[in-house]
Amino acid sequence: MSELADLLERFRRGPELLAVATTGAAGPELDFKPEHKWSVRQIVCHLADAEAAAAMRLRQIIAEDNPTLPAWDQNAWAEKLDYEKRKISQALELFRVLRHSNFDVIKDLPESAFARTGTHTTRGKMSLLDFTRLIAEHAENHVKQIAQVRAAYKEHRAQSVIR
What we know:
Blueprint: H1 3-12, H2 14-22, H3 28-31, H4 40-63, E1 68-69, H5 74-80, H6 88-106, E2 117-120, E3 124-127, H7 128-162
Parallel strand pairs: 1-2
Antiparallel strand pairs: 2-3
């Protein structure tokens, strides 16, 4: 499998990974926050909003000549969009729908299209290939973070029982 084909498959699988990572999480586990970290609910909401931002950026890189890709303040979004009160089921579905839509946009592009660039306001010049990799890794990294938060919750619960 080529590097691009492998990357596209990783990109496509993001919603599956997130669904598996959150299966069975409910109640207080969704809102448990290890010190200075986000809860499972907040991470899922963040991924949904990040995918919405990525939808615009992917399309800009494909359609425009070297567009400016503005950075966004993820902590402000989490606070102002009240991630702590959003329904995780809706955020999971939004992520799934947006990721599938984004995949449909890029899956059949010629390999040469992945050399197109945009300029991110904090990361600098990025090719479509770079940006696709960033988005794929973003979901994968947060899936690992969810596993860590869930493990910390289980440990917290076990410690509570011992006391």
